[in-house]
Amino acid sequence: MQNKGLIKFFAILFALVSIYQLSFTFVSNKVKSDAKSFANGNPDKELKYLDSIGKENVFNLGFTNFTFNEVKDKQINKGLDLEGGINVILQISVKDVLKGLSNNSKNPVFNKSLADATANQKGNQTYIDAFFEAFEANSKGTVKLASPDIFANRTLQGEGGIDFQMTDDQAKKVIRKKVDESVDSAFGVLRERIDKFGVTQPNIQKLGETGRILVELPGAKDVDRIKRLLQSTAQLEFWETYKIDEIGNFLMAANEALKKTEINKVETKTAPKDSISALLATGKDSATTKKGNDPILDKIIGQGGGPVLGLFAPKDTAAVGGYLRRADIRILLSADQHYAKFVWGKPSTIKDAKGKDIEAVELYALKGNRDNIAAMSGGVVTDASDTFDQSGKPAVSMQMSGKGAKIWEELTGKAYTQKSNIAIVLDNVVYSAPGVSSGPISGGRSEISGTFQISETKDLANVLRAGKLPAAADIIQSEVVGPSLGQEAIDNGTNSALLGLLIVSLWMMVYYGKAGWYANIALAVNLLFLFGILASIGAVLTLPGIAGIVLTMGTAVDANIIIYERAKEELRSGKTLQEAISASYSWKGAMRSIVDANVTHVLTGAVLFIFGSGPIKGFATTLLIGIVTSLFTSIFIARIFLDWSAAKSDKLSFVTGFSKNFFTNFHFDFLGVKKWTYAFSAIVTVVSIYSLVTNGLDQGVDFVGGRTFQVRFEKPVEVETIKAELVKVFDGSAEVKVFGNDNQLKITTKYKVQEHGTKADEEVNKLLYDNLKQHYSAGLTYDKFVNAYDGKTLGVLQASKVGPTLAEDIKTNAYWAVLGAMLIVGLYLIISFRKWQYSLGAIAAIAHDVIFVLGIYSLCYKFMPFGMEIDQHFIAAILTVIGYSMNDTVIVFDRVREYLGGKTKGNFNSIVNQSINSTMSRTINTSLTMILVLLIMFVFGGESIRGFIFAMLIGIVVGTYSSLFIATPVLCDTISEEEHKRIEQEHNA
């Protein structure tokens, strides 16, 4: 080997750099462990401890020091499935952005196009492209985007804006730019909110040009609080309010009018229309009213006063709000109240007639106007901080700009004179509506008070400081993982990795003897390099990533096996040990096969990286890095030891007493049985396709959208009982399966999955808790059931949500990923082998393998004791199977090409059979190590990736079969008879 000294130098340097990079991870883990011990289970205390030492030196190398903040920035980050925390994808509403850019245009073509874009948006199509497509179809050239009543408005005029002379194509460029600016603005606002939230190592990134933003908060535990923080648009407004005595007559009139449409049987004894006192009552039966006859009054559960019109139960807010928005009801408003705007306050707790605590929501009437613009917007707020009011209750203090201070002084002066109130409204919710008792307020300082928790005032101040989002941000995908579940994943992954390493190492020693030891050393160096690179690039390690590392161990020895098998052949032909080593490492020896096989593997890994997301991208990252490091260590590190052994005149034979005669006289007629294998594969293919058509697949929420909860109970529960309970409250949409142990269930529902607000999420969580709490002993509160905390073993351990739009995108990506991988690999084989028959044989084998695995999943998912869902993890498994199957097929094809171009005597079929038989030792060895490693992962890797591993396990077995019994026969059958005869004549001349 040339430049051996240089390779040693770089190997040692690379090892030292890897150790240096990994040292930060060890130090960081030590500090975090100390923090956990100090906090003794208190997450806030743990976070404060880590914050307090952020700038302290914790790592001394002698020549330089590193603070904890610097150390944690250089460590290998753990993904959500290992660390625990919350992961969400937010969709910035491009529809709202377009409405804002058009100044809320009333143009019918514009608004119909917005509606059509929402309804007809295709998988992987951006909303703005769908809008442009719909606008073109609806306008038919009669209306331009640059019309004065659409985008050529005052807001978008000027430099860089739109004027009415622009064509649609010119206007599109400006609109796209403005939409991108809005998404960038939202990204900045969210980043500022998250930075102030107080989690370690938050991650926020834009996802291409989709208007989507990924937010990862490792270690975060309060689910509902975080979702509110992320989705709040922070639309702060200050409105003048009506008092109950001003709006009460309307409510009485509305109540009377609603009786005609909402109550089937009206009692004759009703309240007089002018009775304001009835409205102020707490909803009890009285001499003038009878419960059940008054659509609005009957729903009042608490007395109003001042700007509060009444208190209602949260469950009634939708119905009452619907009544007050009806055109036939609003017509009852007096002329000066025509633009009144009815809004709800922040939920609070009151006592009912029996003294029991109940939740109530206040109803307000704001003084609206034709343009629906508040008296003052929150854009004037320059700073906000959490504080305490005069009563010692949590509140938020605000400071306004000079312009805002002037408006605020005028507004408060007017309220003081008229003895009215000013409602402070955030995202259409009234937080407080104070009166002004001491004259106009100057200086621009104000305060929001109410029924707050301290954490709420901190979040509210944070949101106000960061500013408002330019449009609504909907959570279209979310995943919540508890820290205890993350620790289980780490333990399972570590155990399976160590056991896999041990099995592979033992097999290499047993089969190849001393040469196997050298391969094991190369494998250890490979793992050091792999982790070193992961640390240096700041990669995120996930459970599928650990699976990728374990898989890397199985494939890492593949190149060594190919080289060793070639060296054995060279030794049998009479060459010396050094000559055999040199020949096996040559291009005509093993290198050509190794390069072809690994290029196809890299191509499928690259497709997986491009189309994957989250944990799947982590899997692809470790797989790709592992391929590169495996090649380096197998080709260069192991070679150093082999050359050293040859220089010492060691009797290195690449065999042991156990493996000496394995496959030496192996002669199987692979082409002779092709009729049987074709028939078997045809039957399997037909059965699989039939099952796919009739039985379908168990599509996970990744593909169809929905919510999934992993719930653990104290003791085993009946699946059918839980399902019957949940079907009732989730409108018939509830699927329940045992997940691992009998006391753990996987619950899936599509209930309100299309509603992205925090209210829908909280409603689903509460319904789940209310219906499952009877299966727990007393003491499991809602917070403990839903939220994550260290040591959590009961309740929701993991929760995820995928919106239908994103699910469609994921499904589209999956199709393109599989088809793209097959196409790219097929093209490479045509280029590498220069004959289309090789590519066709390989594609036939891949298609066979994919259909086979899909068929197994379709036939078995209903009765297997583990999950067999078709999701992103499954697609990753399929692409890995494609890579492996291609890898195996290319090794066989390389030997077939070598034999067909050589001098082996015999007819065409016998030459091909000899070439296949010569690869059997490599094929069986590689497949066996892979199968052993995957079996270990399947048994010890944990329930969450068992279906993922099973797909790869089946795929590896089927891939080995297809490379021998499908790919090669197809290759031979597509080569013409003339070519067969020509090859035979050349070989037998």
TrEMBL record:
Protein export membrane protein SecD/SecF C-terminal domain segment(s): 472-644, 794-973
Keyword Transmembrane: yes
TM segment ranges: 493-510, 517-540, 594-613, 619-642, 676-693, 814-831, 838-859, 874-893, 924-942, 948-972
Listed GO biological process terms: intracellular protein transmembrane transport; protein targeting; protein transport by the Sec complex
Residue ranges occupied by any SecDF P1 head subdomain domain in the UniProt entry: 374-471
Presence of the UniProt keyword Ligase in the record: no
Topological category with respect to the lipid bilayer: Multi-pass membrane protein
Positions of the Protein translocase subunit SecDF P1 domain: 184-240
GO MF annotation terms: protein-transporting ATPase activity
Cross-referenced InterPro entries: SecD, SecD/SecF_arch_bac, SecD/SecF_bac, SecD/SecF_CS, SecD_1st, SecD_SecF_C, SecD_SecF_C_bact, SecDF_P1_head
Keywords, ordered alphabetically: Cell membrane, Membrane, Protein transport, Translocation, Transmembrane, Transmembrane helix, Transport
Top-level division of the source organism's lineage: Bacteria
Compartmental location: Cell membrane
Function: Part of the Sec protein translocase complex. Interacts with the SecYEG preprotein conducting channel. SecDF uses the proton motive force (PMF) to complete protein translocation after the ATP-dependent function of SecA.
Quaternary structure, from the entry: Forms a complex with SecF. Part of the essential Sec protein translocation apparatus which comprises SecA, SecYEG and auxiliary proteins SecDF. Other proteins may also be involved. Forms a complex with SecD. Part of the essential Sec protein translocation apparatus which comprises SecA, SecYEG and auxiliary proteins SecDF. Other proteins may also be involved.
Sequence similarity: Belongs to the SecD/SecF family. SecF subfamily. Belongs to the SecD/SecF family. SecD subfamily.
Protein name per UniProt: Multifunctional fusion protein
